[in-house]
Amino acid sequence: MLEVSGLEVRYGTVPAVRDLDLSVGRGEIVGLIGPNGAGKSTTLHAIMGAVRPSAGDIRLAGSSIRGRAPEQVVRAGVALVPEGRRIFTELTVEENLRLGLAGRRSKDGSAEALERVYELFPVVHESRSRHAGLLSGGQQQQLAIGRALVGEPDVLLLDEPSLGLAPTVVDTVFGALLAIRAQGVTILLVEQRAQRTVALADRTYVMSNGELRMTLGPGDAGDSRRMVEAYFGSS
Ligand SMILES: Nc1ncnc2c1ncn2[C@@H]1O[C@H](COP(=O)(O)OP(=O)(O)O)[C@@H](O)[C@H]1O
Ligand SMILES: [Mg+2]
Question: 62-121 pLDDT, tens per residue?
Fold first, then answer.
């Protein structure tokens, strides 16, 4: 569904991502973990067309989307839940959700798309008339994911959705990812919570210093030696 090959992104002369290959099959949840500065967000921004790769290709269902503008990438069926949620605190919850409708490929079905988000996140429904700034961090994260989903993307990219959330709230967010996948959405999940991500995802890529270091499967989540090696190297 999503295939990144030989991706290189530079900020000035410094490469932030180098020769990166990764793929996400239709209906998969794929994790992308690694320390701060590894190049995870840059990879997502390159997929969205927000930064221009200096080499490599990005293919969506077989067609290259490299070099397309962000709004075109959204129209092609990719949505990003950005780091830090980017909720408009002065708008109501429903107004925030409606902003996501701009990314829809079809004019029909908007009401149903909102309805599905409200079913997935009852707390978003309950607070739909409140100012979004009044929501807790976990509720704002659910709203941010909902805003991406009302566009009915084929591929959902998330940048550290569990950042700053209490463990029980992380359960809610990770549980929602399984429900979203069950609706047929393909997911690429960037996270800091390595162990939980490895346990959840079909496959998890570990990046450091702009490069792919290793690929882990769900069975590796309980292997603490391998998890440490993933972060700090094996030499
Ligand atoms: N806009 C930018 N301008 C210059 N350097 C950047 C910019 N964004 C990120 N970087 C650098 O690129 C590298 C990768 O950053 P990033 O993709 O944000 O990593 P991660 O999301 O894994 O923490 C880091 O060294 C970071 O300092
Ligand atoms: Mg980041």
Answer: 999 999 999 999 999 999 999 998 999 999 999 999 999 988 888 899 999 999 999 999
Please check whether residue 110 is in contact with residue 147, taking contact to mean a CB–CB distance below 8 angstroms.
Answer: no
| Ligand 1 contact via 38 beta carbon (within 6 Å) | yes
> Which distant-in-sequence residues (6+ apart) come within 8 Å of 129 by Cβ?
92, 93, 94
From the CB of 42, is ligand 1 less than 6 Å away? yes
**Rounded alpha-carbon distances, angstroms, from residue 156 to 10, 27, 200, 207, 222:** 24, 11, 16, 20, 27
Q: Which residue has the tokens 């840059």?
A: 42
Cα–Cα distance between 111 and 115 in angstroms, integer? Answer: 6
- What is the dotted CATH code of the domain comprising 2-232? 3.40.50.300
Q: Does 51 sit in the ligand 1 pocket, CB within 6 Å?
A: no
Token reading at 54: 């200096």
Name the strands in the sheet holding 55-60, side by side, starting at the edge strand that comes first in the sequence.
Answer: 14-24, 2-11, 55-60, 63-64
CB 194 within 8 A of CB 180: no
Q: How far is the CA of 85 from the centre of ligand 1 (A)?
A: 18
Check: pTM over 0.70? Answer yes or no. Answer: yes
Distance 63 CA to ligand 2 centre (A): 26
pLDDT at residue 208 tops 60: yes
Residue 139, ligand 1, Cβ within 6 A: no
In DSSP terms, 124 is beta-bridged to: none
Domains of the chain, by residue range, sit at: 2-232
Give 191's contacts (C-beta < 8 A, 6+ positions apart).
31, 32, 33, 160, 161, 162, 197
